[in-house]
Amino acid sequence: MTTGTLNRRQLLLSGAAVLAGGPLARAHNGTVHVAIENLAFVPTEVEVRVGETIEWTNNDRFAHTATVKGGWEVTIPPGTKATRVVTANDSVNYYCRFHPNMKGRIVTTA
Q: I need a labelling partner for 20 at 20 to 30 A (CA). Which of 30, 35, 42, 46 fits?
């Protein structure tokens, strides 16, 4: 095995580790951005403070939702953005009502 191959393999493994369980996304300028691509929320888990905004951008060709069971719901039509201002009770798991395998998590910090 050559050194170039080893470095490329290490890089690929590092990238896979980040995608599998990388650090939480944090708000920048008061807004956390979550993309919706290929039936997935990216990143899956976000960390925000009360009063900050989560913005979902739907890059898919069909509508999605960010739905909290027994709580709130945000509808995100294809090719658009939707937002929610985070409240104290927003440490929640959410999913897409139309595609229940799509799941995300919001972690609210002080």
A: 30
81-92: per-residue pLDDT in tens? 999 999 998 999
CA dihedral 55, 58, 59, 64 (to 10 degrees): 150
State the residue range of the domain holding 34: 24-109
Asked if residue 70 belongs to a domain, the reply is yes
Q: Quick check: is 72 in a domain?
A: yes
> How many residues does the structure list for the chain?
110
Query: How far is residue 56's CA from residue 37's CA, in Å, rounded to a whole number?
Result: 11
pLDDT tens for 1-57 read 444 444 554 444 444 333 444 445 555 678 999 999 999 999 999 999 999 999 999
What CATH number should be reported for the domain holding residue 46?
2.60.40.420
Would you give the distance in Å from CA 78 to the centre of its chain? 16
Tell me the whole-structure pTM to 2 decimals. 0.76
Residue burial 9-46, b: 16+ Cβ < 10 Å; e: rest: eeeeeeeeeeeeeeeebebeeeebbbebeeebbebbbb
